Amino acid sequence: MLKKIKEDLEKAANPEKVNIYQRFFKTGKGEYGEGDIFIGLTVPKQREIAKKYVSLDLNDVKDLLSNKVHEYRLTGFLILVYKFEKADEKEKKNIVEFYLKNIKSANNWDLIDCVADKILGNYLIDKDKEILYELAKTDNLWKKRIAIISTFGFIKNNQFEDTLKISEILLKEKHDLIHKAVGWMLREVGKRDIKTEEVFLKKYYKTMPRTMLRYAIEKFDSKKKAFYMNRKI
After folding, report:
1. Alpha helix locations (H) across 102-221?
2. Most exposed of 62, 97, 128, 177 (fewest Cβ within 10 Å)?
3. CA 176, 179, 185, 188: dihedral to nearest 10 degrees?
4. Full-model pTM
């Protein structure tokens, strides 16, 4: 089955998109995705293939996650998502453990944003969440992003506390990929509970990174946006 899924991925490849994806995912020297390899698959096509091979053995999924080709890794992660959706509690635990053991393969933002909340976030809703705080406090950009994006699973269930606490931990991060992720999650909190978001913003808006703030207030009306953006430290 592993051979067949690789054949399907290569058959669907589009060389004309490779250069576009390499620029979009910052694969140049010194950029966050330096050296990553693409074959030009769209995400919808990868989802289609992943659903077709949802029964793929975890050892074979690991093979995909270890592959140098970006789309192989994303397809592997998407298979995990679909496995998780169909799994019982014991199987979900195994999938989460497998995900964490292979977390180093999630080395670009799409490999995180399509997966983290759907596996780690959904699993931890009613469990101890210390692993997310551990990830948030590492020196690894991608682990930090996994920590905050995983909380989207909580937000969708109107649980905001951990999003706010992890956002607080990440306030002084330098990378804009963290600024954008935190701002996005704060915005999602605000969609469900604007008062909760604004309590956080009024405490930190004068010192939080501007990109983070801009993402957080994206859905605000122009008057409220102006209040936050015209800040004076």
Report:
1. 109-113, 116, 122-124, 130-136, 141-150, 152-155, 161-169, 176-192, 194-204, 210-216
2. 128
3. -90
4. 0.94
